Amino acid sequence: MALRTGDHGQAATNGLKEKVLTLDTMNPCVRKVEYAVRGPIVLRALELEQELRQGVKKPFTEVIRANIGDAQAMGQTPITFLRQVLALCVHPDLLNSPDFPDDAKRRAERILQACGGHSLGAYSISSGTQLIREDVARYIERRDGGIPADPNNIFLSTGASDAIVTLLKLLVAGEGRTRTGVLIPIPQYPLYSAALAELSAVQVDYYLDEERAWALDVAELRRALLQARDHCRPRALCIINPGNPTGQVQTRECIEAVIRFAFEEGLFLLADEVYQDNVYAEGSQFHSFKKVLTEMGPPYAARQELASFHSVSKGYMGECGFRGGYVELVNMDAAVQQQMQKLRSVRLCPPTPGQVLLDVAVSPPAPSDPSFAQFQAEKRAVLAELAAKAKLTEQVFNETPGIRCNPVQGAMYSFPRVQLPPRAVQRAQELGLAPDMFFCLRLLEETGICVVPGSGFGQREGTYHFRMTILPPMEKLRPLLETLSQFHAKFTREYS
Amino acid sequence: MALRTGDHGQAATNGLKEKVLTLDTMNPCVRKVEYAVRGPIVLRALELEQELRQGVKKPFTEVIRANIGDAQAMGQTPITFLRQVLALCVHPDLLNSPDFPDDAKRRAERILQACGGHSLGAYSISSGTQLIREDVARYIERRDGGIPADPNNIFLSTGASDAIVTLLKLLVAGEGRTRTGVLIPIPQYPLYSAALAELSAVQVDYYLDEERAWALDVAELRRALLQARDHCRPRALCIINPGNPTGQVQTRECIEAVIRFAFEEGLFLLADEVYQDNVYAEGSQFHSFKKVLTEMGPPYAARQELASFHSVSKGYMGECGFRGGYVELVNMDAAVQQQMQKLRSVRLCPPTPGQVLLDVAVSPPAPSDPSFAQFQAEKRAVLAELAAKAKLTEQVFNETPGIRCNPVQGAMYSFPRVQLPPRAVQRAQELGLAPDMFFCLRLLEETGICVVPGSGFGQREGTYHFRMTILPPMEKLRPLLETLSQFHAKFTREYS
């Protein structure tokens, strides 16, 4: 090879060849991405688990991963009917087995009929199996009291995250002061900040009101929007309802005010409604943005753009690993929707098993079906236990001096505020850590409890929180909460 | 709401509110994305299918979708053992069933032990279940004659596409003349052009040599690289071997030359090896880039950066819908690999059913296992039939005047060159269509055969091709090939 050009070639001949891909040369947007839910604290938790397996002595016998909303990892049993239908679809020889109820078989046959070559191993169309999108549309209609839903506006996805990122991707444009800004709640689920960093869009923070149970206040939305317009072009508003990590459930009045605001300010609404089945508090009720928007009538109903996301990972299903979800688009420009279809087609299709589970979740057994009673009993048991755990969590935290926890009205997390003594804050700063990260790391090292510091979700300056799932089984949750309370007391004494 | 700012707010008060998201305001990079494999011709095929169902008379009774490598949609039967293990994992009650062989049960139990809460419904760690990555590493070691593979360098993915896009995303940086350029073969699989458009990276075309059975020529790589350096910074080289859509299988000598070239020119190698099990031609053999690189010794072995991709969608498995795959990283900078881990964690985890199928595919039954004989027989039958279909396709096309087809040495496609009469080319231009798109659309309308025009993959100016899968069952493939030949003759007469 006689002729070489470029620095790399030259370096090679000198034996000094550097890597092509280094921290300095890689995508700078990717470097900015952070995702606390699986961040450094979770990596440390994994190490601790390995050390325990290797017999290293610790002040605890088990790491409890309360960092992530992963119900089945915490021992929640899958809903039998979901798994029966999926097993039949995966291995249709079982359609002849006497061990499966007839309605599960009928359901599996119906889904397989809709698959290419009658097999889950075929790609579906990119927006998801037509039949399943029709079932999703009917689910939405039932949920929303008969307001029509069009299967052509429904795109199945690889979990809700996949669909959320697709929508954000479509929305990002411009440079410098015309760059797309996206309003997100603080505290937020860090998928939003991560995706915006990766897409080099501008994150516009609006703060939820901790003093009013994490309520969303339109005056604060307006403050955030007006400030943001100085340096970017805000074009979308993200709402998480029920809230993650905050657990609040929005009132209908609040949703109406948000819709009016979005309409008047020209913002595309992204409604993350993956916890729509997870509402526990008395007096709280889930209202979908689609329903409220439609019932508000003109000019909102026919014009306000909205994307609503749902998933099989949460609810009573907890089928995180299967990565099933969908987005419903409302009032999206038809040409843009075609562009979205094209973009999705590059990734071929969402995983078919997740599509199957979604189908069963959106069209559960009817009262006349043999599986009805068991399905309902299992679903109710999961939701009742979650409600009890939500209540217990709030109660124990609020009995602890220095910890204050808003009601966990919905979703799967508590996000209590913790007082940290000034000397602990100072010590954290010396270590180059956020104060709540310091607290959570110490908690993990001393008790094996893995929770995520509030700084990973965002919080008002000078306040400290952590996110803890309410998912551990009752017999573990109670001692866990007590251990946590005692640790906070000890930590406070140590640094006072 | 008294005070409003911004154009949108103003427009709203005038009753002229426009959509936030339109073709003009959406992400311009997404607009540039094209993906022919599921492009306009496939949308038309879907319409035709619907018309047939509605009883509309057509000159054919069935649309044959030979546009996409989707084996099971074409009737290929899933490998029994893969589905047995997955069904057991999905619905562990079946572990007590007498209808499943012991080795399938042992396998399922082993996988479930490695899952959070012993359930597929839990998230796995973001890089994929540790046990499965270990099994993948052992597979690679066997494949490569004992060269070590490290599970920590293996990331499971949602099909190979997901991992390919992740690697490209890491590589993209710079602006204007320093923007990352990526060399891709022409013809290419359009995931590459689509991802590069979306990421706003520079696509650098190198042409495969149709006259030499689509061989890759290093002189052409060098030409492409030198030209590209005028306007971008080429940093990666993509190879598809066995080739898609071209079906060639690279020789060891060719791979060595490519590795030397990449090393000397400072290019990160991306080896798309998803068809590694699909090699049919006598004298052809799959050589992995990893193996060749390692056996070349210093300075290449310890330094050349490489990512190799594989999938459960192709091979003898054909499990496209489950979206399982992996990438093995070789010589990647450790800090960048951590960044990749972080980036992957935002999407939580690859779907667990795809991980299970991958696990079985990389660790098939051993000779002493009860399922060994059946597994081997099924695998051999699939691959033997694909080999026969590859041969038949090549043969029939080459007997057709005006069509010339290189040997289908591997993969799942033929990419024949078609002569189109000048008047057909002219007619296409009048219609604003690429000439081969015009040909393929007419073919679809008149015969129901759906193939993808060569312009969707790239081809030398003035040449015309189409990509057709070799997947239709033998009893359909032969008449399909004959219909296609006859149509070409008729089309040629019509426009002569």
From TrEMBL, chains A, B:
It comes from the Eukaryota. Pathway: Amino-acid degradation; L-alanine degradation via transaminase pathway; pyruvate from L-alanine: step 1/1. Gene3D superfamilies: 1.10.287.1970, Aspartate Aminotransferase, domain 1, Type I PLP-dependent aspartate aminotransferase-like (Major domain). Belongs to the class-I pyridoxal-phosphate-dependent aminotransferase family. Alanine aminotransferase subfamily. Its main location: cytoplasm. One of its GO terms (biological process) is L-alanine catabolic process. It is an enzyme of class 2 (transferase). Its cofactor is pyridoxal 5'-phosphate. Catalyzes the reversible transamination between alanine and 2-oxoglutarate to form pyruvate and glutamate. Participates in cellular nitrogen metabolism and also in liver gluconeogenesis starting with precursors transported from skeletal muscles. Keywords: Acetylation, Aminotransferase, Cytoplasm, Phosphoprotein, Pyridoxal phosphate, Transferase. Pfam families: Aminotran_1_2. Its EC number is 2.6.1.2. The keyword Phosphoprotein applies. The keyword Hydrolase does not apply. InterPro entries: ALAT1/2-like, Aminotransferase_I/II_large, PyrdxlP-dep_Trfase, PyrdxlP-dep_Trfase_major, PyrdxlP-dep_Trfase_small. It is found in: Cytoplasm. This is Alanine aminotransferase 1.
